[in-house]
Write a structure and sequence with these properties.
By secondary structure, the protein is an alpha/beta fold. The protein folds into 2 domains: 2-210, Rossmann fold (3-Layer(aba) Sandwich), CATH 3.40.50.10180; 212-377, glycerate kinase, domain 1. Helix content is 37%, strand content 18%. It has 14 helices and 11 strands. A 6-stranded mixed beta sheet has the order 6-7-11-8-9-10, sandwiched between helices. Helix 10 (241-257) links the parallel strand 6 (229-237) and strand 7. Helix 4 packs antiparallel against helix 5, helix 10 (241-257) packs parallel to helix 11 and helix 11 packs across helix 14.
């Protein structure tokens, strides 16, 4: 994104700072590029955030500030609120991830532990003009959720943040400083994040430049050019990854059941992002767990193949983008002494698929529009 802006604006850029995930950096001439950890923030992200804060504070009324946002911005730009440490935010993020909380919940909590999120970056830039260009990694492209909405009014509150932590049963395990801040906010003892309609947002504009729909459209056109009968099933795939795998397996079986009605290879496309509630000792991630669940459900059915992958090139805490399976995957595994059901129960899909050479490795893609699932069925 930074390189694209440089190609357009060149020497008109006075200064800039971008923080991205380790291994994702691109060289720029006018913009400083920093790398940090995702999804759990680290010290490098904290240092990059300080540089961003300084740039924001230096903006003058006549300046145009261009803010480039994509998935991962919440973790990559950690700027803890007063009294909150980076370790506190790491603990909160880890607890919510392990509890299976979706991105909306993570961001609501992080906004109320941050100096920049939930509209607070716009507060620092004001009264300069700001144009926000977004690559959406959230279903429905809600501007207040993408990267925790650093430049838009926050409709969530401290009360909601506490309710989320209690709902996922992690409030009591939060560090003392987090509990005290959340409870103080609930009592209106500290100000909440700036709400929609605040004057600081009058000179801010938002533009979604890429999302799941665009990725699905590209996949649709490619599959069609290859001779498939294509249907984009949904761009809002969500919920537990293993359940999504079962749901998609039903679609595959339904197509096989209608084989006398259709005679061309079928391609079904799904976009969105599932979650995994980690109960076992494995490392996931969500696309690989979806693929493993699917493989179990379609065992023995020939002419079915599924790819599930993160569009950013990384699935959860693994180096794989996702996994590819077919009707013979579960049987092949059993012949090698691997129990697919045991691996699924242990949230250990990565180890399972890796040992079958069924992981997909792409490296960093440079973008993030959630996940893409491609189902191919040949029903001749």
């Amino acid at each position: 994104m930074a390189r694209a802006v440089e190609r357009r604006l060149g020497d008109r850029i006075d200064a800039g700072a971008v923080v991205t995930q380790y291994g994702y950096a691109e060289k720029c001439r006018h913009i400083g590029i920093f790398e940090a950890s995702h999804p759990v923030p680290d010290v490098s992200g904290l240092e990059a955030s300080r540089k961003i804060v300084k740039l924001a504070a230096d903006a003058r009324k006549e300046d145009l500030v261009i803010l480039l946002l994509s998935g991962g911005g919440s973790a990559l730009m950690p700027a803890p609120a007063p009294g909150i440490s980076l370790e506190h935010k790491q603990s909160a993020t880890n607890s919510l991830l392990r509890a299976g909380a979706p991105i909306e919940v993570l961001n609501c909590v992080r906004k109320h532990l941050s100096e920049l999120k939930g509209g607070n970056l716009a507060r620092k830039v004001f009264p300069a003009r700001m144009s926000v260009l977004l690559v959406s990694d959230v279903i429905g492209d809600p501007l207040d959720v993408i990267a925790s909405g650093p430049a838009i009014g926050d409709p969530t509150t401290f009360l909601e943040a506490k309710a989320h932590l209690e709902r996922y049963r992690v409030f009591q395990e939060m560090p003392k400083a987090i509990k005290e801040r959340i409870e103080a906010g609930c009592r209106n003892e500290i100000p909440d994040t700036p709400a929609p309609g605040d004057k600081i947002f009058k000179r801010v504009s938002h533009h979604v430049v890429a999302n799941s729909k665009i990725a699905l459209r590209a996949a649709y056109e490619k599959a069609k050019s290859m001779g498939y009968n294509v249907k984009a099933q949904t761009h809002t795939l969500s919920g537990e990854a293993s359940e999504a795998g079962k749901f998609i397996a039903k679609d595959a079986k339904r197509i096989l059941g209608n084989s006398r009605k259709k005679h061309s290879p079928q391609c079904l496309l799904y976009g969105g992002e599932t979650t995994v509630k980690v109960l076992g000792n494995g490392v996931g991630g969500r696309c690989q767990e979806l693929a493993l669940s699917f493989a179990i459900e379609i065992r023995g059915h020939e002419n079915i193949c599924l790819l599930a992958a993160g569009t950013d090139g990384r699935d959860g805490p693994t180096e794989a983008a996702g996994g590819i399976v077919d009707g013979g995957t579960a049987k092949t595994a059993q012949n090698q002494g691997l129990d697919p059901n045991a691996h699924l129960r242990d949230n250990n899909s990565h180890d399972f698929l890796r040992r079958l050479s069924s992981c997909v490795y792409t490296g960093p893609s440079g973008t993030n529009v959630m996940d893409l699932v491609i189902l191919l069925v040949n029903n001749y």
